[in-house]
Amino acid sequence: MILSHTYTRTHNAIYFSDPYKQCLQCGEWIDGVLDAPGPNILIPCEHVAEYRDLCASWGPVDGCTCPNGWHEMRPRPVYDDGHHY
Ligand SMILES: [Zn+2]
Ligand SMILES: [Zn+2]
What we know:
The chain is mostly beta strands.
């Protein structure tokens, strides 16, 4: 189920500080969820799906603190319209 992009413009989004969350439906990284009633709507893929946390030890200060340290920081996407949801 793909929602139109206009949908994201009419709802606030909750962005995660943790960059290691992944959509279970398409496997893409997600940045947050829409703050809308009902099930999770993931950003930016807009799937209505659960997500998983790939780096359980991630912290906002130190980043990945897994023992083997293999979760490299991924680049954050840049939204070209400069809009803050
Ligand atoms: Zn997805
Ligand atoms: Zn990690």
